Every structure is written in C-alpha cells, then in structure tokens.
Amino acid sequence: MLALVQCWKPEFDEARSEPFLIIRQPDGSLQLWYHEIGVHLSQSDLYDLAALL
Fold it and tell me: Is 30:22 a contact under the CB 8 Å cutoff?
C-alpha cells in the first residue's frame, strides 16, 4: 500500500497495486480500496496516510 500511495499523482484518475486501488471521485476526493473495504479520503489525507506509513 505504501508504494501505491507514494506513487499517486494528482492527475491520476485511478491507480492499482493488487489488492489496493485508489480512485478519484468527480468531486476530487479519493477512495482507497482494499478488496471490498473502502475509505473516503481527501488528497491531503492520502499524503498524511503516506507519512504515517
């Protein structure tokens, strides 16, 4: 998951590294998925998560 979060770029609509998936929503927010478990994040939240990992 850390590698996926670190490689995320704001211009991406989707990024995948099995079993993780990041999808940009129409409102600019992000969804981080692990199999069928999803978390709704802002872009800054995603960068905060990367710092924690």
Answer: yes
* Residue 24 vs residues 37, 39, 42, 43, 51: alpha-carbon distances, Å: 16, 12, 10, 9, 20
Beta strands in 1-53 (DSSP E): 14-17, 20-24, 30-34, 37-41
In this prediction, residue 8 carries a pLDDT of 84
Question: How many angstroms separate the CA atoms of 38 and 42, rounded?
Answer: 13
Burial 18-53 (b: 16+ CB within 10 A, else e): eebbbebeeeeebebeeeeeeeebeeeebeeebeee
pTM: 0.84
